[in-house]
Amino acid sequence: MRKVIIIGAGLAGCYLATQLQDTCDVTIVTKKSPKDSNSMLAQGGIAASLDPGDSPAEHAADTLTAGQYHNKPAAVNQLVATGPKLIQQLIKAGMAFDRQADGQLDFGLEGAHSHHRVLHANGDRTGAALTSFVQSQLHRVQWQSNTTALALKVQDDVCVGITVRNERTGQLETLTGDAVVLATGGLGNLFPLTTNNQTITGDGIAIAARAGAAISDMAFVQFHPTLLTLHGQCYGLITEAIRGSGAILVDENNHRIMANVAKRDLAPRDVVARHLKAWQQQGHQLFLDISAIPNFTQRFPGVTENLDNHHVPFRTTNRIPIQPGAHFVMGGITTDLSAQTSIPRLFAIGEVACNGVHGANRLASNSLLDCLVSAEKAAEKIQALQPLTIRPTATTNKPAVKPILPTLTDLQDKAWQYLGVVRTRTGLRTFLDWLAQFNYRQLTPEQLSDNELAIANLCLCANLIANAALAEPKSLGAHYIKEPAAKKQVG
Ligand SMILES: Cc1cc2nc3c(=O)[nH]c(=O)nc-3n(C[C@H](O)[C@H](O)[C@H](O)COP(=O)(O)OP(=O)(O)OC[C@H]3O[C@@H](n4cnc5c(N)ncnc54)[C@H](O)[C@@H]3O)c2cc1C
Q1: Where is the FAD-dependent oxidoreductase 2 FAD-binding domain (predicted)?
Q2: Is domain 226-326 annotated with CATH 1.10.10.10?
Q3: Beta strands 319-329 and 287-289: pairing type?
Q4: Using CA positions, which residue lies closest to atom 21 of ligand 1?
């Protein structure tokens, strides 16, 4: 039986495991518990052109428009063509998406979708409902929870395994397999405010980059305009669907911030995030005014519960305190349409991967769908692999290097200042100069504490973002640069 090691227990990793568990010996390694992932937090929904009036071609067109045509058309076509089939299979297996009174699937409309095509489950708790359902289908996998993946084991340029460390015992172990799959999600915790789960620290991208795998599109990080923010801390996402239902962005004086912008409060996320940041820099506070939404608490039960948990008096004020923050990374480990990376037998799926589907900006509700599609394609490829023969190798103890790293807070503050919603070439260079004083590239992951490792991984990702942003000739999608590119010298 082929042995497959999957790193990450979000939707991508768990869905892949469902596809492989009958034919392969599958181990899922995850940093904390199976509940710790961005997939569990997804609120908005999952897009699929299943409504009779809709079509994969229209879904593809919306995806390409949102991605500013920076997408790989073949990846987009694969997403929109395969996605509906996988959703139907999930429904057949018992996944309960929300339905209308007549029993028909209830398709929601979201920003930049030209059709009602976004499925929800349990209202605004789609990610938790879907990921838990997929996890409930896992019967033949081994779990290694509270275990952090550190570094790839590569023999003759082929990935043969991965070193992991159990958080509780500190024990290091090398897991070998016929395929290793990185499904570790994005890098939201590079920024001081993020919607992401605390385990999401760019690990997969850093692990792959250290082993020399190709990485692409790192300039494109999506910032979400509305993070519930109290005393400078983010306490979760306030879904865009609330603005879709009539909520508006205001300041402390009830001034409507997006009044003079095309599409107003429903302008693209990057446009809204930039306006909010500019307004905030002028000393204003930011709120989402929900007074126009009837039955708010019934329509948004997940958001309501979160607001109540944090004692936000929205029932009396009709306001939710928000700020923009990091949400999603379009770039990542370069893969082909089968999730194969540039290192043989190393695969990447879900948010950690860059198969080109999202282009320069992700269309809302496409990432959960990409988790399913990229996992299904990886499963097909892995099942066709020949078994691997692994040579025994002696472990070499590398000399210890004392880590010189920034504090997480310093790194996050600098990342927000220089890699955030508005960038300048001067700022990107200043950031890289600042980063150059640290030795994150010389460090051996096995020799670092969990905290040092997370910081080193985020430094590596920050370096990739800054360099990719400098290499972009102009603003595109989520990458916004203020200064023009320097003119090329002639002669
Ligand atoms: C608040 C929020 C709302 C969202 N809403 C939507 C939405 O409505 N629709 C949509 O399509 N998308 C949405 N997204 C984006 C979407 O949820 C994610 O892109 C997607 O779930 C990523 O899935 P994944 O399986 O690739 O990674 P994740 O779900 O992030 O899972 C990554 C897993 O890897 C583990 N891990 C990380 N590093 C290591 C390591 N070194 N060793 C071991 N394990 C590790 C993590 O703990 C986690 O279990 C939302 C995201 C957030 C944060």
Answers
A1: 4-368
A2: no
A3: antiparallel
A4: 39
